[in-house]
TrEMBL record:
Keywords: DNA-binding, Transcription, Transcription regulation. Residues 40-59 bind DNA. Residues 17-77 form the HTH tetR-type domain. This is Helix-turn-helix domain containing protein. Pfam families: TetR_N (PF00440). Gene3D superfamilies: Tetracycline Repressor, domain 2. It comes from the Bacteria. GO terms for molecular function: DNA-binding transcription factor activity; transcription cis-regulatory region binding. The lineage of its organism: Bacteria, Bacillati, Actinomycetota, Actinomycetes, Micrococcales. It comes from Candidatus Microbacterium phytovorans. InterPro entries: DNA-bd_HTH_TetR-type_CS, Homeodomain-like_sf, HTH-type_TetR-like_transc_reg, HTH_TetR.
Amino acid sequence: MVSGQEPGATGHERRRRQTEEHLLAAAGRLFLRDGYARTSLAAVAREAGVAERTVYVRFATKAALFQRVIETAIVGDVDPVPLPERGWSVAAMSAPTLAERVHAFADGVATMNERLGPLMAVNGEVEPAEPSVQESAARWREATRVFLEVFWGAAVRDGLLAKDADVAWLASVGAMLSAAESRLLAARTFGWDRDEYAVWLERTWMRLAAASALVPGTD
């Protein structure tokens, strides 16, 4: 979805989202180029070609701005559409076969991590120093695990996965494999591009699904 063309959005809402997209793109460039410590809200305003007040009105702190850059990288845009309602998420929950669901999920995660991956080095600098960023990262990691638990639970419910499959184990392992840090490590270690990572993720999840009934459940 292109945020400037969202059905039902007013002209004011479209302009507000376009301004936010512009600011976040400028901030993302600076965070990647100069690092977190050397990027100021004033520098973001200069990079975006807007008044400093425009930045401060939307983001009270640099940490808040960085969190929003990360959040936008996760979902892909500034539209108010929750991740579970995005197209690839819906396909991953509703496709008729397990293979199709896993393919949709792996493909969506790979695309998401292409946006997130470059920011992980910056996040490593920010997270230990900014409690609000640390808390936000913890929430997103837990949300990923919960989302995967819902995903595998739906597969069991729909008869696509054995009833005795260890859903909690699948969700925990899947959350680690799909983390942006794992994508970055795969690129550094094996030189994998986005498509190679997606194929690996898909194959690994299918093999984990086949083995899940053999793994003891956690108490």
